[in-house]
């Protein structure tokens, strides 16, 4: 019996060691790293008003009368970038090939008008300074995060896969959908009308003056500031409450 206990203890220790080793390998492979061979490049592209990126870039976008696209990262990663403007006027940036490990890649963009972004793959973005723009479409997926500071008449959002959007500024309407434990932080984005659908334990904070329409399910929650007329359809342990 004593020998059996010793064998069991050794087996448990071995299993724990293998699990810890696997965990360390996973964490190391997933971590972002400083460039080994740092370099930068400027792309001469223009006439775009939308952005699409599908990797863990650190993106900064600001309004300017001039177009510019500048990247900073490891030379090997820069050489693997695909950067182009499609026929619809969308700037697309991504990698040609799949690699488990990528170094940090910074992307700096200036443009006169921004009408839409589609970010996925854990992209982190900051968008700042846009005014006098009518509509903005924001699509975030794959645990992407974005902070947007500007004024649009209407913002249309689609957040999924534990993505996170922070809005600052003001506008007329905020509409869209959140799913998969996504979050919207818009207490600092004052609008007249809000129309949102939330599912899958998503959450939203909004500031609204006139009309608030919410469809919330699957343990989702919405908190609002202001004195709007509220119409809500709530199920599955969800909630809509005044902050």
UniProtKB/TrEMBL annotation:
<dbReference type="InterPro" id="IPR021255">
    <property type="entry name" value="DUF2807"/>
</dbReference>
<feature type="region of interest" description="Disordered">
    <location>
        <begin position="223"/>
        <end position="243"/>
    </location>
</feature>
<feature type="compositionally biased region" description="Polar residues">
    <location>
        <begin position="232"/>
        <end position="243"/>
    </location>
</feature>
<feature type="domain" description="Putative auto-transporter adhesin head GIN">
    <location>
        <begin position="47"/>
        <end position="228"/>
    </location>
</feature>
<protein>
    <submittedName>
        <fullName>DUF2807 domain-containing protein</fullName>
    </submittedName>
</protein>
<dbReference type="Pfam" id="PF10988">
    <property type="entry name" value="DUF2807"/>
</dbReference>
């Amino acid at each position: 019996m004593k020998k059996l206990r010793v064998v069991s203890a050794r087996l448990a220790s071995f299993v724990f060691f293998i699990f810890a080793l696997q965990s360390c390998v996973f964490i190391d492979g997933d971590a972002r790293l400083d460039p080994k061979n740092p370099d930068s490049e400027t792309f001469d592209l223009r006439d775009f008003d939308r952005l699409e990126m599908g990797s863990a870039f650190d993106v900064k976008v600001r309004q300017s009368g001039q177009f510019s696209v500048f990247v900073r990262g490891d030379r090997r990663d820069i050489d693997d970038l695909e950067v182009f403007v499609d026929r619809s006027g969308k700037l697309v940036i991504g990698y040609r090939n799949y690699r488990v490990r990528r170094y940090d890649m910074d992307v700096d963009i200036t443009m006169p008008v921004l009408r839409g972004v589609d970010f996925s793959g854990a992209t982190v973005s900051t968008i700042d300074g846009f005014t006098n723009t009518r509509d903005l479409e924001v699509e975030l997926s794959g645990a992407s995060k974005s902070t947007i500071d500007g004024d649009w008449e209407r913002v249309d959002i689609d957040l999924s896969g534990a993505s996170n959007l922070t809005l600052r500024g003001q506008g007329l309407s905020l509409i869209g959908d959140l799913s998969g434990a996504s979050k919207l932080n818009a207490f600092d984005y004052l609008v007249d009308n809000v129309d949102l659908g939330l599912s899958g334990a998503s959450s939203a904070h909004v500031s609204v003056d006139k009309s608030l329409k919410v469809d919330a399910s699957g343990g989702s929650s919405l908190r609002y500031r202001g004195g709007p007329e509220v119409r809500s359809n709530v199920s599955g342990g969800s909630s809509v409450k005044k902050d």
